[in-house]
Write a structure and sequence with these properties.
2 copies of one chain form a homodimer.
Chain A: H1 4-8, H2 11-28, H3 35-42, H4 46-52, H5 56-76, H6 87-104, H7 106-118, H8 128-147, H9 157-179, H10 185-190, H11 192-218
The structure holds a DNA duplex (30 and 30 nucleotides).
Amino acid sequence: MPKQTFLNLPEEKRKVIIDAAIDEFAEYGLENASTNRIVANSGISKGSFYQYFEDKQDVFMYLLMVLEQEKMAYFKGKHPPSNNMDTFGYFRWMIKTGMEFNTSHPLLTQAISRVMFGEGLYYGNTFADVRERTSRGLKAMIEQAIANGEVDPSVDVELAVMIMETWSNAISTYVLNEGMKQKDIMKWVRSPRVQERIDKMLYVMEYGLRKTESEFTKSF
Amino acid sequence: MPKQTFLNLPEEKRKVIIDAAIDEFAEYGLENASTNRIVANSGISKGSFYQYFEDKQDVFMYLLMVLEQEKMAYFKGKHPPSNNMDTFGYFRWMIKTGMEFNTSHPLLTQAISRVMFGEGLYYGNTFADVRERTSRGLKAMIEQAIANGEVDPSVDVELAVMIMETWSNAISTYVLNEGMKQKDIMKWVRSPRVQERIDKMLYVMEYGLRKTESEFTKSF
DNA sequence: CTATAATGTGACCTCCAGGTCATATGACCT
DNA sequence: AGGTCATATGACCTGGAGGTCACATTATAG
């Protein structure tokens, strides 16, 4: 985590630095990011950088924290459209709200998902706990759905979690990769065409999950 | 592509070199692979390396070719268990046979999938044509399924392709990541527990695809 | 106004990357 | 035997990485 010297900095200066770091990680990932470029682009000296942070991974951890906080704040400001929503409806709402957030912070999101789903898969363990946390959230959700009778109780919870994670990742990768090609990513992601596509992906997942287990066990 | 000098080499020497390259790419990916290490681990000199290949990407392209050829040879030696199989059954068979191949060449597979699904996503374009080829194959498959009446004709073909690709990637990532932790990856992947898990994932996908569209359009 | 503590700086360090090249080796021909 | 040509070698080059440190600058306190 950043040292005190960094936290003492005037907000504006901090912003310049983390923006430069975001640009760097978004373009090069963690492994290939260059502290030299970060300092050059943020107009601080090499010495200062090491007075603020341990190393580039330290910066990245800070970004991770920033993202987590901002995302939580964003979700707190929103409310699901309806109160008596089933679990899948809630999951759809979460994914879509998440996409809205992502497209409003495209570079930050890109930087973090690059590292987490790219390098993190192989240089594992470092980010294992972050992934673990979201897994637990999804697990609670699917258990809720089973308790509500929305999902067959014989469903393999671990499997369902994996499926939800897979789709959540696939959708956010799709939105980021395609969206970055557009001139206005927000407008693009809100277009009916894209929204319908996301809906369809989620419905395919949902129907598969709802109906598979009973059919599957029958077929053996 | 490798130069003639490399192809002139005795098979055994070539094998030592490409094995060292596979190890390197599997552990470090393309971007962070080191020609120095490859050279050291294969016992050849720096000068020779550049007499054999243009650069490390050249080696990687060769590996890609080797993989493609070996996979094709492998599939030619196998036959679907039944002739009157529907499209999804065929897809399941393909995925499973592919997994068998992957686990019998775990390092080669790891090396290539790391680069293709990790770095390839961001340093795009270089491998776009390889991905494009598999997409076209899946597209033909899903169109066949529609023609056979197995899938609702109103289905969004592009979407179905994306879903199949997502699952194919997710499963192979899962098998590689988990499998590499086991002492005998082949035995592990063939165990009923793992086979059932793969089956379930594919069934969730299949039921989603089979049944979603009509339900989906109704729900609007 | 001066003394002291905090912050800022960039030249410099080591390390290793990708890549080159003059030179050495040795297989094969006449 | 000498000559030729493909192959093999590792010292060497440049460039950029992460990281350090003696010194310069600025804020704070007495």
